[in-house]
Amino acid sequence: MVSPMLPDGPRAGSLTPMTRTLFSGGRILDGTGAESADADLVVEDGLIAEIGPTLDGDDIVDMAGKTILPGLFDCHTHVTFSHIDTMRRIQTPFSYRFYEALHNLDATLRIGITTIRDAGGADLGVKQAVSDGLIKGPRMQISLGMISQTGGHGDGWMPAGVNLRLESHPGVPNTIVDGVDEMRQKVRELVRMGADVIKVAVSGGVLSPRDKPTHAHFRQEELDVLVEEASAAGIWVMAHAQATPGIKNAIRAGIRSIDHGIYLDDEAIEMMLARGTWLVPTLVAPRGVIAAADAGAAIPEASVAKAREVAEVHHASFAKAVEAGVKIAMGTDSGVTPHGDNLRELALMVSGGMSPMDALVATTRSAAELMGLDDELGTLEPGKRADLVIVEGDPLDVATLGERIAAVYQDGAQVI
Predict the structure, then answer these.
(1) Which residue from 217, 244, 305, 368 could staple onto 374, CB 3.0 to 4.6 Å apart?
(2) What fold, for 143-370?
(3) What pLDDT, in 10s, does the model give residues 277-295?
(4) E strands along 53-188, which residues?
(5) Phi/psi at 85 (nearest 5 deg)?
């Protein structure tokens, strides 16, 4: 299965064709896991042309005291969500979210994240506005909306008889489905509307008060046909997966990534290793729910209680996965937490057993591999697209990395 290639990224003043731009006098941390080293880097026509000592160029960027990283990735964002305050959301005009998305995309780009996988909310218009250069932002793979069963994590029904699911509109379909036939039809509809990846909730979740993170959702045959249809369209599936049985069902079906993975047991981890299934941990997400509630956000008490319940279990499950060698790619669930704070996830990954270098690899090379973009992005190598992040100070001090981004380039053009 090959994930669709991304269109040309946004350019904020493209380089003159064949101009050699030399990034001189700094260090290179290439995203492969190798230690950083002194080297120059040349960009030509939007691509990395050379890396090495004493190179030449037409235009020179002084890199003294700085390090070049590959463009960073976040494999689980919601750029049209800006907060999780229920009352505030239902009192916000429908189209306002798209104007907020402008700021969310910019905030994400400013911390060096040049590529994202949006896990629900962004539609084809948002993606096209970025790829056409109408607005600045990371390159995007989009899922449009999350497929959920009736009464599942994506079902917005409330005891008052109202439905608070606010995501559906002409660019994003209603994604509540039940049964094999409805599942098949919904995947086809999402593909028709521009989905690059299909997202499904195989368990309950934290922010949906009428379900439980420990309960599996959808039966195996429903998930099997989901993956069958996505595969027929040449795209992968990502799973909101918190419950242990739901995680195992997703792995059996051939779903590519387990997002969240709160309740991992030894068998689930062994299954992930055997199938090559990815984990996108989003460790910051439950902490974000707790922080928002403590700051006064109107969040159902049942959701806050679940966030407090799962935070430590989540961290322990992640640590077990790291120790076992599960493939990990960075994702945050931003939108649940503020956009622009995405790199807080790296320090949590380190506290769960990853080295700072491993956390950076999960945010570069591994994330690009998960998204099927490793031929173009994720590492600094000649021939790859010149997505560059310029960092002051030690790039392995991941706790403060987001505060030390000096410049960001996409396809060799400076965007921040």
Answers:
(1) 368
(2) TIM Barrel (3.20.20)
(3) 999 999 999 888 888 788 8
(4) 59-62, 66-70, 72-77, 113-118, 139-142, 146-147
(5) -80, 110
Q: Which residue has the tokens 């994202």?
A: 116
CB 267 within 8 A of CB 287: no
Amino acid at 403: E
Q: Kindly report the pTM of this predicted structure.
A: 0.92
333 catalytic? Reply is yes
Q: Which of 66, 136, 199, 248 is catalytic?
A: 199
Q: What is the DSSP string of 231-295?
A: HHTT-EEEEEE-SHHHHHHHHHHT-SEEEE--S--HHHHHHHHHHT-EEE--THHHHHHHHHHHT
User: Per-domain residue ranges for the chain?
Assistant: 143-370
Mean model confidence pLDDT for the chain: 92
pLDDT digits (tens, 9 = 90+) for 36-83: 999 999 999 999 999 999 999 999 999 999 999 999 999 999 999 998
Residue 341 bears catalytic tag = no
Catalytic residue among 123, 211, 259, 333: 333
Residues in the chain: 416
Task: Phi first, then psi: give them for residue 408, nearest 5 degrees.
Answer: -135, 135
